[in-house]
Design a protein that fits this description.
With 241 residues, this protein is mainly α. The protein contains nine helices and no strands. The chain has helices spanning 2-10, 14-35, 47-65, 68-75, 80-101, 110-130, 144-170, 176-205, 211-233.
């Protein structure tokens, strides 16, 4: 239904688009209440926020990463090879972040690593999005997108791995399997929703806006979601009793 809403919006069939959007959102919320532990949508401290955080940060980062190759090739004139190398920077940063948070001598709490990682990822998304800026006053080098994805990958390596550890810390032994499935569904749902929303923006305004404005809007969506992820990260701590 959400995809159909985007298709109808592209055709300027706004009534059908709004109806499909409202029904789709209602179904997503209803499904989420069934799939996730109680309190997840309310960002309750403890396990619910651990699961919610995974979906929000996945949506923010992967919603950005998914449109980098398109932006570099269609807007900045880069080759597919260079666009692929920019995306590959994610793996380098992610590996470094995962290594850093897994060191036996590390003293930082897992909840602190989640917060730090979310901030670093948000900075990475901001830097990546800046590569879309091409104006008469300012042209940001295209390679900045690769640097941004590397920074974002670093933050993801710090936060995602630490968040997974907290999932097991906050879960009773008998619920760890179900909660592991829930966090994976949260990851997938977050990415699908943000990438889909950005796709609707691209489909509707690709002919009406300049490349800078179009991709700026797409990356702005991811940045807003990442700012939400930073806020949720501060809920990722043991529930108060």
């Amino acid at each position: 239904l959400l995809q159909w809403a985007g298709i109808e919006a592209e055709r300027a069939a706004w009534t059908a688009a709004v109806i499909a959007l409202l029904v789709g959102v209602a179904l997503v919320v209803w499904s989420a209440r069934l799939m996730f532990p109680p309190g997840t949508l309310r960002l309750r401290r403890g396990l619910p926020s651990v699961i919610a955080f995974r979906g929000v940060i996945a949506g923010g980062f992967f919603g950005c990463q998914a449109y980098v190759p398109l932006m570099l090739v269609s807007h900045r004139g880069a080759s597919p090879t260079l666009a692929g190398l920019a995306v590959a920077g994610t793996a380098l940063g992610w590996s470094a972040g995962s290594w850093w948070q897994g060191r036996p001598t590390l003293r930082t709490r897992r909840s602190g690593l989640v917060r730090q990682g979310s901030v670093v990822t948000a900075v990475g998304v901001l830097v990546t999005g800046s590569a879309a800026i091409v104006t008469s006053q300012l042209v940001v080098p295209a390679w900045v997108a690769g640097v941004g994805l590397m920074i974002g990958g670093l933050g993801m390596g710090l936060s995602m791995s630490s968040n997974a550890v907290l999932l097991f810390d906050f879960s009773p032994v008998e619920d760890r399997g179900a909660n592991s499935a829930a966090i994976q569904m949260s990851d997938s749902l977050g990415g699908i929703l943000v990438i889909g929303a950005a796709g609707v923006v691209y489909a509707i305004w690709r002919d009406a806006l300049s490349g800078t404005a179009l991709f700026g809007a797409i990356f702005a969506i991811s940045l807003l979601v990442m700012l939400l992820a930073v806020a949720v990260a501060y809920r990722v701590r043991p529930q108060e009793h």
